[in-house]
Design brief:
Blueprint (H helix, E strand, L loop, with lengths): L5 E7 L18 H8 L2 E3 L2 E2 L2 E2 L1 H10 L3 H4 L15 H7 L4 E5 L28 E5 L5 H9 L39 H15 L5 E6 L30 H5 L3 H7 L10 H31 L6 E6 L23 E2 L1 E4 L11 E3 L3 E2 L3 H9 L13 H4 L11 E6 L7 H6 L7 E6 L3 E6 L5 E4 L17 H17 L8 E4 L2 E4 L6
Parallel strand pairs: 1-7, 1-8, 2-11, 3-12, 4-13, 5-6, 5-7
Antiparallel strand pairs: 2-10, 3-9, 8-10, 13-14, 14-15, 15-16, 17-18
Helix pairs in contact: 6-9
């Protein structure tokens, strides 16, 4: 296995796609990721296929659209019959390991009724070996803090947001209040240190998934990242003048803005503080990844390691008066993707950018392609390897597609307010360079002219001049779904001579 590639698969949670200084962001600075892009390929139109974390990661890890894996919400079990990149890599001789979390809700049909994994949606991806598993409960980190004499909240979930004493920025402090722990010992540093320890001890090619929580909430950063960006000099928000005006765009948006946890704070200084810290957490992740990259170079592993950096989804951060992720706006779905291929075959593409639409379902096929493993029929995505070698893949998609399932088995407020059944709490989105079409199961559709209205303020769905466009994109979306219906056994026929197998391309 000496000539086989290592794979370092990195996700940073809730990272908006434009937030790289390599892309000219006016505020956030990411020098180490910029350097990775200069030594690899930066994909500028990369999209998540679902939100929130669980559904998005199900697509990321299985290569499947939500319509096929059906793990639609945090807590919806991922059907055990689906394979994933870790299982396939394991069959190919690797030992896939996890640092962080995968947010995989386990299939209860495969678990003992008393299994602890049936008490949390944050289970491990089947086939992966957790080396340092940290999710909502950061037990390895908080145990390490206690062992080294540091105070830890009684409820260790609050360690991520355990702030130093003193006033907050909106109450008169000169900068956002920092995390009580120094950057050298916070959760990001702890997790990346454990990864470095693992790689240092590795004697065979590795596949490691580093799943970093930040810049996901709580928006609390250690010094100096808490004060790295001035809250008063941040980019302007993309939103209407008032909540009422914003919500008038669509009944679902009005409903979402009525939910306290998803509505941006009315206090402008608080919102600016959250945004400044969001950027600061990005810069902290960038610094931590710089240490990982430097270690790979110092130990001679850099030139034999495929590095993939992306996210599970984005963050509204006040745009359209929303916080978090959800709905149909690009802020929740456009995410970064950088791939650094160490092989000489990729030398001609270093520092280049790909503007074709790519999606998180492409990550699993890419990793399997690089280790020489067969790509399962279930995968809706395709390998990005041709882009890395300077080749244009045949019949590549010309749009991005995602889904949002806003059902909640524990809360029927959306159903009551919008007049829906639980299974009607769904939307599908298709977008290209010119238009975005949003189809709801039983609510009015939306159409945005992205060339004239890039911030998605004007719904053209009822404009007579746009009716031909509406029809075109509605048909495209229907064809997209039909073309990607679950196909695991559909290329097989049982005949008098036995099974006949004839795989066919998705596109």
């Amino acid at each position: 296995m000496a000539d086989r590639l290592n794979i370092l698969f990195i996700t940073a949670d809730q990272w908006r796609g434009e937030c790289l200084s390599a892309l000219g962001h006016p505020t956030v600075r990411t020098p180490n990721l910029d350097a990775l892009a200069e030594d690899g390929v930066l994909f500028t139109r990369h999209y998540a296929n679902a939100v929130p974390c669980g559904p998005s990661r199900a697509s990321l890890h299985t290569g499947m659209y939500l319509q096929n894996h059906r793990s639609g919400t945090n807590g919806t079990p991922l059907d055990a019959r689906h394979t994933n990149w870790a299982k396939e890599a394991g069959r190919h001789g690797y030992d896939p390991v996890l640092f962080g979390y995968t947010d995989t809700s386990q299939d209860p049909r495969e678990e003992d009724p008393e299994s602890p994994w049936l008490r949390t949606y944050e289970g491990p991806l089947p086939g992966i070996r957790p080396v340092c598993m940290m999710g909502t409960w950061p037990t390895p980190w908080t145990d390490w803090l206690k062992e080294n004499g540091h105070e830890v909240p009684d409820d260790i979930r609050f360690a991520y947001g355990h702030r130093a004493p003193g006033p907050e920025y909106e109450d008169g402090a000169p900068a956002p209040r920092p995390l009580v722990y120094a950057k050298e010992i916070d959760d990001t540093s702890y997790l990346t240190n454990r990864l470095i320890d693992y790689i240092a001890d590795s004697t065979t090619p590795f596949i490691a998934h580093l799943s970093i929580l930040r810049p996901h909430p709580p928006f609390v950063a250690p010094e100096p990242f808490n004060a790295m960006y001035d809250p008063e000099t941040l980019p302007a928000l993309k939103r209407k003048a008032s909540l009422a005006e914003e919500g008038a765009q669509h009944p679902w948006l009005e409903h979402q803005l009525g939910r306290r946890l998803y509505r941006a704070p009315a206090n402008d200084k608080k919102l600016r503080r959250l945004k400044a810290v969001y950027y600061g957490l990005m810069s902290e992740v960038d610094e931590a990844l710089g240490r990982v990259f430097a270690f790979l170079k110092e130990t001679g592993r850099w030139d034999n390691t495929l590095v993939i950096f992306t996210s599970d989804h984005g963050e509204q951060m006040g745009d359209h008066w929303l916080l978090g992720k959800g709905g149909y706006f690009d802020e929740s779905y456009r995410i970064p993707l950088i791939v650094r291929d160490p092989r000489k075959a990729a030398d001609g593409t270093r520092g280049t950018r790909v503007t074709r639409f790519t999606e998180n379902v492409d990550i699993m096929p890419t990793m399997l392609d690089f280790i020489g493993a067969e790509i399962p029929v279930q995968c809706d995505g395709k390998s990005l390897r041709p882009f890395l070698e300077g080749r244009e893949p045949a019949a590549w998609r010309r749009e991005a597609h995602w889904e949002f399932d806003f059902r909640d088995p524990a809360d029927d407020s959306a159903e009551k307010r919008l007049g829906l059944t639980m299974h009607q709490c769904t939307m599908n989105v298709i977008r290209d360079e010119k238009f975005k079409y949003v189809h709801f199961t039983k609510l009015p559709p939306l159409l945005f002219d992205l060339e004239k209205d890039p911030d998605e303020f004007v719904n053209r769905a009822t404009d007579p001049d746009y009716l031909p466009v509406m029809l075109d994109y509605a048909q495209r979306l229907l064809s997209w779904r039909m073309n990607h219906d679950e196909q695991t056994l559909t290329h097989i026929a049982i005949t008098d001579d036995g099974p006949v197998v004839r795989p066919a391309p998705r596109y």
